[in-house]
Amino acid sequence: MLSLQHISKYYQVGGNKNFVINDISLDVEEGEFVSIMGPSGSGKSTLLNIIGMLDEPSAGYHYFVNQAVHQLKERQRSALYKQYIGFVFQAYHLIDELTVYENIETPLIYQDVKGSERKAMVADMLDRFQIVGKKDLFPAQLSGGQQQLVGIARALIAKPKLLLADEPTGNLNSKQGEEIMELFRKLNKEDGVTIIQVTHSEKNAEYGSHIINLLDGRVESSKKF
After folding, report:
1. CATH of the domain at 78
2. What letter would DSSP give residue 133?
3. Is the entire prediction scored with pTM above 0.85?
4. Per-residue exposure over 178-204, b if at least 16 CB sit within 10 Å of its own CB, e if not
5. Which tens digit of pLDDT belongs to each residue from 65-113?
6. Structural domains in the chain (count)
7. How far is the C-alpha of 66 from the C-alpha of 120, rounded, in Å?
8. Alpha-carbon distance 95 to 77, whole Å?
9. Any residues with CB less than 8 A from the CB of 182 and at least 6 apart, and which?
């Protein structure tokens, strides 16, 4: 599904290259649940952003669903992202001025899904995440756990093949965090969604079937279970 070959990301500082990611190669099969770990500054979020096409590598080759991403124009990358990828952020990234319902609906508007179809899909998500009663509330009126559920519902509404999660439980208490991780496990096992998460938590990492440890922008270890 995904293949990164010799991916690097660096910034020119004076005459030197300051590497955030240094020569990373990685393959992810469809249906895998990958956990990326490592200390702060090891390049985890940068790697996730490159996988999710939110950032471009300085060097290397990026293949996703048989497309050479490194050769695509920005518009083509954007279309590929919208079709296949859902993103869950630590800071939720909900739109404050929109209700829960409208936040979840947003990706479908970008994909030109018809109004009646959007309505049915949003209703299904609200039901699935048991947030029907919250649909007319704004993000500021929700708890952190509820906001993250809305973020996940929004990421999943367009039925992505790949879900990317950057510290998805970072702002949640342990019980809420566990509920989110169990939800991810279910999505992976029952719905076959491929998941790549960045996490500091050993416990959360263990939900994965493939754990990658980064150190100083390189893969220190990679284990499949």
Report:
1. 3.40.50.300
2. G
3. yes
4. eebbebbeebbeeeebbbbbbbebeeb
5. 999 999 999 999 999 998 899 999 888 889 999 999 999 999 998 888 9
6. 1
7. 31
8. 23
9. none
